[in-house]
Amino acid sequence: MDRFPEYKLTPEQLEALCKLAQRWDAKVSDLLTYAYPECGRIETACLMVPVGRDLTNPSMVIGIERDGYAHS
């Protein structure tokens, strides 16, 4: 995540991100371009991933917790 170098993805988050990319027919790199950590402590923050047909105008945001659990 180039925009947030202090935020490190866990292996579980990366796996969930790959599943999300497959489900939305998107590239992982494209999803990461618009992803951001939620507010709060960077060590415990979940990854917020906008998804939809147009990632610049997403239809929803999926939160991926540090343990890989994903929710909208």
Protein described:
It contains 2 helices and 4 strands; from the N terminus they run ααββββ. It is an alpha+beta fold and 72 residues long. The protein has one domain. A 4-stranded antiparallel beta sheet has the order 1-2-3-4.
Q: Over the alpha carbons, how many angstroms does the gyration radius reach?
A: 11 Å
Secondary structure class reads alpha+beta
H/E topology pattern = HHEEEE
Biggest sheet: strand arrangement: 1-2-3-4
Distance separating the two termini? 21 Å
What percentage of residues falls in helices of 4 or more residues?
25-40%
**Principal-axis shape:** globular
Mean pLDDT: 92
The portion of residues forming beta strands comes to 15-25%
How many helices in DSSP terms? 2
State the major sheet. Answer: 4 strands, antiparallel
Q: How many extended strands?
A: 4
Number of domains: 1
Low-confidence stretches: none
List the helices and strands and how they pair.
Layout: H1 11-23, H2 28-34, E1 36-37, E2 47-51, E3 60-64, E4 70-71
Antiparallel strand pairs: 1-2, 2-3, 3-4
Summarize the structure.
With 72 residues, this protein is of the alpha+beta class. It has helices at 11-23, 28-34, and strands at residues 36-37, 47-51, 60-64, 70-71. It has a four-stranded antiparallel sheet.
From the structure above, extract its key features.
72 residues, alpha+beta, 2 helices, globular
